[in-house]
Amino acid sequence: MSLDKIQSIPYGKEVIKIKNISLAFGGVKALTNVSFEVKKGEVFAIIGPNGAGKSSMLNVINGFYKPTSGHINFAGEDRKEMIPEFAAKSGIARTFQNIALFKGMSTLDNLMTGRLLKQKQNFLMQALYFGPVQKEEAYHRDKVERVIDFLDLQAIRRTPVGSLPYGLQKRVELGRALAMEPEILLLDEPMAGMNVEEKQDMSRFVLTANDEFKTTIVLIEHDMSVVMDISDRIVVLDYGKKIGEGKPSEILKNKAVIDAYLGVAD
Amino acid sequence: MIYKETGQFKSTYESDHSIFPLIQDKIAFNILMLVAFLVVPFFIDSYWEKAILIPFLIYSMAAIGLNILTGYCGQVSLGTGGFMAVGAFATYKIMTFFPDLNIMIIVLLSGVITAFVGILFGLPSLRIKGFYLAVATLASQFFIIWLFNKVPWFYNYSDTGQITVSERTMFGVAVTGANAPSYATYLFCLILVVVLGFAAKNMIRSKIGRSWMAIRDMDIAAEIIGVPPLKTKLSAFAISSFYIGIAGSLYFAVYLGALEVTESFDIMAISFPVLFMIIIGGLGSMLGSFLGAAFIVLLPIFLKNVMVDLIGLSAVTAKHFEITIWGLLMVVFLILEPHGLARLWSIAKEKLRKWPFPY
Question: For chain B, which residues make up each domain, given as ranges?
């Protein structure tokens, strides 16, 4: 399984290589020949104006969209496309721009779903619910409780997530992704619609996850001050094309990027 | 004050995750079980058996099955009657082929056969959702009934098209057939419902149940965390059909004894009432399955008692009123409490917790 392969890659080496990915929906070209690499253990940001193809890029990485051409080299393995289940099994977790939580379930159950892939007992054992199943449940509950502690979700453990405020839902969604103990975490606008305090909290969580669990983070974000502060490297997309790549300081000076964001001066 | 959880501390995740985390619930449940197993069998008579307890237990079983599929996995199904018919005919055929087989094994095997039929009719669920899936399962309902009518092999070429149960015993006591004593049929159904009820609850609170609910609440996100949609939906269809098949098997072998497929497993006779049970009881609630079954079984009896015995209407008139009132109550209920009796119970619990103080 490629989970072992990802784990065997040393930090700082490329873990995902995107090669000449193009994606078209009929006549609309969402992505055109985009290539970049994500190194293991870094915080990698994808930025760009609305409609630049950032979310499409994440969807390609985790298998929702099949690229029209190009391929992804994932932990040394070349592949034309992924399927979401395979992506999950190889250690890729993600959050969505519009929250995709299980609204009828409690916070705890939502986080527990993050452990589903790691639970091995079959349904007959689950129906009997004795020894091994009970032990397995307790083991994964313990892991989930750590995430709950980390994200300060103790008070809303039993609350159905549908009734939580927006900022907390975003946090629970991050929690569900973290409960998967992912190698690579794809975050689609984790701070959209948040106030300053919530953004600070979220940045702290993202950085701590990166620092303590050594999770590679690929994030899309519109708040430039946040992006420039927390990311190691940035790629900039505009109209489905890559227009810049590099460290935050380099991106700030990049002429093409400034033009894309502020418009071209005549 | 009655229902307080103060002082009940959980020190392990196992105990926190138990079915009845509160001691009050546990005591109440144990008392209920003691009464059901040790008291009722001594007092049960034929009226209580045939009119109330057996139908309640069988419908509870069917409601648990449908609740797994519709309430927990979010796949609307109108094929309950068809699947129950599969269970009934499976029982009949197994009885013909293996005259010496124990009735418990026959019933469980019928459930397994129904589970496979359920998987077959669950296949479209990968492509279609909601109302469209409901219509697809409706097709399964009509197809299955048609099949059992059209192919004489299923009813052993009998002239009437009826299937009739033969006598089977457990521990020397008849459980099926005309001579089965009330306590035996009651205990047989009760044991199955209690054991399989616990099994369902266990599945719901562990991995497979969370996968179902994940698919129900948001299938895209479920896929992202590695829940395979087809496998999960089919497992829900299979396990739900297993329960419904056993309900059908009991309905035929223990309750009716002899039946004709069109009449007994009609959509109006089974599919809709069972769907109403889980809606009135509470979608996605085990307690709701039982409350809904009790409501639907008891309401007509209650109405009949009131109208015929108390008011003195003729039985026919009462029957007409009964249907009207039944429908009316259904509508009123859905408007007032769309989340069902189970929600009413949790509101009541919340009130009891604070009683006698308002907050």
Answer: 21-266
* Token duo for residue B205: 């609170």
Q: B87 pLDDT exceeds 90?
A: yes
Strand partners, B170: B173
Residue A52 falls inside a structural domain: yes
Residues of chain A in contact with residue B200, where contact means CB-CB under 8 angstroms, are 127
Query: Of the segments A30-44, A54-68, B105-119, which one has the largest average pLDDT value?
Result: B105-119
Minimum distance, in Å, between the CA of residue B304 and any CA atom of chain A: 38
Task: Please report the DSSP string for A214-265 in residue order.
Answer: --EEEEE-S-HHHHHHH-SEEEEEETTEEEEEE-HHHHHH-HHHHHHHH---
Total domains in the fold of chain A = 1
Put simply, the answer to whether A104 touches B213 (Cβ < 8 Å) is: yes
Cβ separation of B225 and A114 shorter than 8 Å? yes
Minimum Cα–Cα distance from A85: chain B residue: B226
Over residues B25-63, the pLDDT tens digits come to: 888 889 999 998 888 888 888 888 888 899 999 999 999
Mutate to test the interface with A, among B206, B232, B240 (most CBs of A within 10 A): B206
- Report the b/e string of A24-55 with b at 16+ CB within 10 A: eeeeebbbbebebbbbbbbbbbbbbeeebbbb
Is the CB of residue B112 less than 8 Å away from at least one CB of chain A? no
Say whether A180 and B235 touch across the interface (CB within 8 A): no
CA atoms of A60 and A191, how far apart (whole Å): 22
**Residue A2 is part of which domain span?**
1-91+217-266
Q: Is residue A208 part of a domain?
A: no
- Interface predicted TM-score (ipTM) over 0.90: no
Q: Does the distance separating the beta carbons of B221 and A96 come in below 8 Å?
A: yes
Task: Classify residue B339 by burial, with Cβ atoms within 10 Å: 0-12, 13-18, 19+.
Answer: middle
B225 touches chain A (CB under 8 A): yes
The whole-angstrom separation of Cα A216 and Cα A184 is 5
Q: For residues A248 and A264, give the distance between their C-alpha atoms in angstroms, rounded to a whole number.
A: 21
